[in-house]
Write a structure and sequence with these properties.
This protein is an alpha+beta fold. It is built from six helices and six strands, in the order H-E-H-E-E-H-H-H-E-E-E-H. The chain has two domains: about 70 residues, no CATH class; about 110 residues, no CATH class. Strand 4 and strand 5 form a beta hairpin. Helix 2 packs antiparallel against helix 3 and helix 3 packs across helix 5. The protein is globular, with a radius of gyration of 20 Å. It comes from Aspergillus udagawae.
């Protein structure tokens, strides 16, 4: 059955510890101006299909049919509802804000703005504001309490800088993403 992992498979979410590469100038595959390769990497992070949430699990999610019409998965897949994970939505939002921050990259080359940035400017602004609010609310909801030490550095503008390379205990995103891929009900 293609059901939500936290509803049916509580052992799916595993944790790992990482020193996250968060310094200002640290290179990662996702940082920097748009390239065809980088855009593909970003799309692969968040652009996944929907999976099935059985109707009898709506209560666990604090949802009901009252006043709502939810999309069903195709009958050949099941009888439940189509859903996506919030983490993928949040990554879509980060991706969209990242693309917006580089909009001149496309415009300077005479290219159309990517996907949801192209079209009605009011809708684009509303979408961007929605993404900012989603990320703000999620950051406050998860409230990462990892300490960031202050490092003395005579070369830094104020003689000190934040040591952003801090150890984090993280959910294994790649396992979660793979679960979504393996349980896709609507591509």
């Amino acid at each position: 059955m293609n059901t939500a992992p936290l509803l049916e498979e509580p052992d799916l979410v595993k944790y790992s510890e990482y020193d996250l590469p968060l310094y200002f100038n640290e290179k990662t595959d996702y940082r920097g101006p748009p390239t065809p390769e980088r855009e593909i990497l970003w799309e692969k992070l968040w652009h996944q299909g929907a999976f099935e949430v059985p109707e009898d699990k709506l209560g666990i999610m604090n949802k009901s049919h009252s006043g709502r019409t939810y999309k069903h998965v195709p009958p050949e897949v099941g009888t439940g509802y189509a859903a996506q994970l919030e983490v993928l939505h949040q990554l879509h939002c980060v991706h969209m804000l990242r693309q917006w921050s580089y909009k001149e990259h496309w415009l300077d080359q005479g290219l159309d703005l990517p996907g949801s940035l192209y079209g009605d400017p009011k809708l684009t602004r509303m979408h961007l504001d929605h993404c900012i609010e989603v990320l703000r609310a999620n950051i406050m909801c998860t409230s990462d309490v990892t300490p960031i030490l202050i490092e003395l550095d005579p070369k830094a503008p104020f003689g000190e800088r934040a040591d952003f390379r801090s150890n984090h205990k993280c959910r294994n995103f790649w396992d979660i993403r793979q679960w979504v891929i393996d349980h896709t009900a609507i591509p």
